[in-house]
Amino acid sequence: MNTLRFFARRAAFYLFTAWAAITINFFLPRFMKGDPIQAYLARHRGQVTPEAIDSLRILFGLNTDKPLLQQYVDYWGLMFSGDLGRSLSRGLAPVTDVIAAALPWTIGLVGIATILSFSIGTLLGSLIGWSRGSRADVLVPISTFFSTVPYFWMGLIAIAVFASGLGWFPASHAYGRGSTPSWDPAFILEVIKHGTLPALTIVIASLGGWILGMRNMMITILDEDYVTVAQAKGLPARRVLTRYAARNAVLPQIQSFALALGFIVGGTLVMELVFSYPGVGKLLLEATGAKDYPLMQGLFLIITLTVLVANILADVAYAVLDPRTRQTEA
After folding, report:
1. CA-wise closest residue to 156 among 273, 21, 1, 15
2. Residue 148 backbone dihedrals phi, psi, to 5 degrees
3. What digits encode the pLDDT tens for the residues 264-289?
4. Is 166 helix (H, G, I), strand (E, B) or coil?
5. What percent of the chain has pLDDT over 90?
6. φ, ψ of residue 291 in degrees (nearest 5)
7. Distance of CA 135 to CAs 45, 127, 141, 193, Å?
8. Are the C-beta atoms of 37 and 60 separated by less than 8 Å?
9. pLDDT tens-digit profile of 183-216?
10. What CA dihedral angle connects 182, 186, 187 and 193, to 10 degrees?
11. Phi, psi of 323 (to 5 degrees)
12. Are 104 and 96 contacting, i.e. CB atoms less than 8 angstroms apart?
């Protein structure tokens, strides 16, 4: 009963959050200064009739003849039908197609790098916390130092050393010029080679936070009575580490990991700019500069829903690993 009540409360909370986010996503562009239609016409010079301008406003859902409430209702209807509008800066291409073209690059690169960073950092943090006071502690200040270095500096240094200097990796883009995206093994290897350097910089830049967080939680958990009792019973050290200490110490990490997964869709904007990578973050910056409101709305919607889904999965994992959560919130 407590479990059902817990999940019902969380479902109601996330449904309300999703409604609020989508509502803000609808109203925010309409309160911003500037006219996206006029900006579009300025980029496409020529004689445009008033009728054509009115047609564009209707096409982009900016028809001021309709009451705002009716526009809001129409927006929900279009969203449920999968129609996020047309991109002003991408030749009136459907927003869903534009986002779908950029999304795999961001998820493939930033997603894999985030999972690697979390896994390696959590494992190292648990081992360092378990053997506190050993030589392994030196990894904490080293990894923390790299986390404090501005990412664009780290990216530029990596390009200067490993791309320009040693020539081990390409300096930019997701694949070579003249290549056509496909599932051909040669193209896949080319994508991996182009993505290795930015992925490594993401892992190195974020590794310190995971190590430090897990190490501190391990030190706190090791002072708990149930760990002391487990050790006094003579249980193997590996079992005490994995079943008692690490299992409880990783719980706060899961919530942070869920947030990191949610923001994967937003991409690492600085990384995409430094390495000229065709991801969602760079697409959002270009849409903002072009006042492409439909594309901005679509990107914000995808990012928001992804963050919510990631948090839902984190809540489920948290409840499975720690039954006390269900009992407390229920």
Report:
1. 273
2. -85, -15
3. 665 567 777 788 888 888 888 888 77
4. coil
5. 0
6. 55, 40
7. 67, 12, 12, 34
8. yes
9. 778 888 888 888 888 888 888 888 888 888 888 8
10. 160
11. -60, -25
12. no
Residue pair 66/77 in contact (Cβ under 8 Å)? The answer is no
Q: How confident is the model at residue 33 (pLDDT cuts 50, 70, 90)?
A: low
Find the helix or strand (DSSP H, E) in which 12 lies.
helix 2-31
How far is residue 273 from each of residues 130, 261, 278, 280, measured CA to CA in Å? 39, 20, 9, 11
C-alpha 242 chain-centroid distance: 29
Query: What's the pLDDT at 60?
Result: 62
Q: Is 138 exposed, middle or buried (0-12, 13-18, 19+ CB in 10 A)?
A: exposed
Tell me the domain boundaries of the chain. Answer: 15-80, 96-329
Residue 178 structure tokens: 């003249």
217: CB partners within 8 A, 6+ apart: 125, 129, 249, 250, 252, 253
**Fold held by 96-329:** MetI-like fold (1.10.3720)
Residue ranges with strand state E in the chain: none
Q: CA–CA separation, 50 vs 311, rounded Å?
A: 47
Q: Which burial class, exposed, middle or buried, applies to 145 when counting CB atoms under 10 A from its CB (0-12, 13-18, 19+)?
A: exposed
Q: Please name the residue that has the structure tokens 């390409």.
A: 170
Please name the residue that has the structure tokens 């973050």. 281
154 contacts 203 by C-beta, under 8 angstroms: no
Bridge partners for 94 per DSSP: 86
